[in-house]
Amino acid sequence: MAGITDAPMRQLAEHYGAGLVVSEMIASAALGTGHADMVRKLGKSGQLPHVVQLAGCEAQWLVRGAEIAADAGADIIDINLGCPSKRVTNGYAGSALMRVPDQALALIEAVVKATALPVTVKMRLGWDDDSLNAADIARRAVDAGVQMITVHGRTRQQFYKGTARWALVRPVVDAVDVPVVVNGDITDISKAREALKLSGAAAVMIGRGAQGRPWLVGQIGAALNGAPVQAAPQGAELAELIAGQYERMLVEYGQEVGVRVARKHLDWYLEGNEIQIDREKRKTLLGSEDPAQVMQMIGAIYGAGWKDAA
């Protein structure tokens, strides 16, 4: 998720037991021309296999992006056929490629042929309910050499409205002989189990559900594997976690950009952990451009006690 699953976020997910993490979506053409922010997104975050997700609509740039990613230490290349953003689909990338399966497959084939790294694909169910073609595209992608498929249980036209339809991922599972991962609306262990049951998938991917709760991925993984589930951090431990992420974001982006990018994460931590603060305090926390002030507020707000920061 662009602007969300950056290296500091992935480091936390890995620390709390995530089995695999994926880079922010990287625009292959911008990466190929040396765009600084796309190059930043290539950074490896920890010890897990380094999965780099590329988006684009031209084979030459996706191939070049895969080459650059490999040189930067990528272990797996993931091709994005799922992003519903108008900015992406208006450029005929992301989920827009599901409207033109032949073009999507030409891109996939080009990347598979160009790299020795495993190639995976992330997609949606289709563009809309009249074109639920994920199973057909997945089958053709696997025939071209793709080694894993992830499916978000919505169409592009749903964006993030309604609910993910996990049962509609099952035709993809039935169509291919590689692991299929189900994604969408997986926010706790019960939903993870239901998604696996309805879809028949081999694993779950968690996106928005981990916003403000980066430990959730590891908790769900542990529960699914019958291992002890680590408790969510609270109080001082939570404040220390958030302060560490904030500091790493300032390094990752530079202070001027970092203080702004961090705001959404600070807000998600309030929402995800049901921490209530008054409007003025929230306005100051999310509006301040003084890192020292924000760090002080992190300790006072998030470390004040579970659901007791008002």
What would you note in describing this structure?
The chain folds into 2 domains: 7-224, Alpha-Beta Barrel (TIM Barrel); 235-302. Helix content is 47%, strand content 10%. It has 14 helices and 7 strands. Helix 11 (235-253) packs antiparallel against helix 14 (291-302). The two termini are 31 Å apart. The model is unreliable at 305-310 (pLDDT under 50). Its EC number is 1.3.1.-.
Can you give me a brief rundown of this structure?
With 310 residues, the chain is of the alpha/beta class. It is 47% helix and 10% strand.
Which ranges are low-confidence, i.e. pLDDT below 50, for 5 or more consecutive residues?
305-310
CATH secondary-structure class of the largest domain: Alpha Beta
CATH topology of the largest domain: TIM Barrel
* CATH architecture assignment of the largest domain: Alpha-Beta Barrel
Count of individual domains = 2
Q: Helical amount among residues, as a percent range?
A: 40-55%
For the largest beta sheet, what order do the strands appear in spatially?
1-2-3-4-5-6-7
Structural class: alpha/beta
In CATH, the homologous superfamily of the largest domain goes by the name Aldolase class I
User: What integer value in Å does the Rg equal?
Assistant: 20 Å
The total of helices stands at 14
The count of DSSP E runs of length 2 or more, i.e. the number of strands, is: 7
Report mean pLDDT, rounded to a whole number: 94
